[in-house]
Amino acid sequence: MAQICVHALVSGRVQGVWFRHFTREQAQASGLTGWVRNLEDGRVEALLCGEEKAVRHVEAWLSQGPELATVAEVVSEDRPLEEVFTGFEIID
Q1: Which residues are the active-site ones (predicted)?
Q2: I want to staple 46 with a disulfide (CB 3.0 to 4.6 A). Which of 36, 64, 79, 92 is the partner?
Q3: Is residue 13 flagged as an active site residue?
Q4: pLDDT digits (tens, 9 = 90+) for 64-77
């Protein structure tokens, strides 16, 4: 199966609700690599890389997020698989 990366920007009530932590858990459970981080404007940014089906699963999950989150919008775009990550990290 094809390996892809998706870059996503998530807006709404997504900071201070464990969004990054749960995104990492979802990504690791799906065998993805990449990262997730908070942005200064209140959004969460993520890069999800791995098998296409798994990436699409976590991408869809971003629209819901964890229980305390209120996701207003997810803007995502496919990216070429340029970097090879060894795991999925929360970055600052």
Answers
A1: 20, 38
A2: 36
A3: no
A4: 999 999 999 999 99
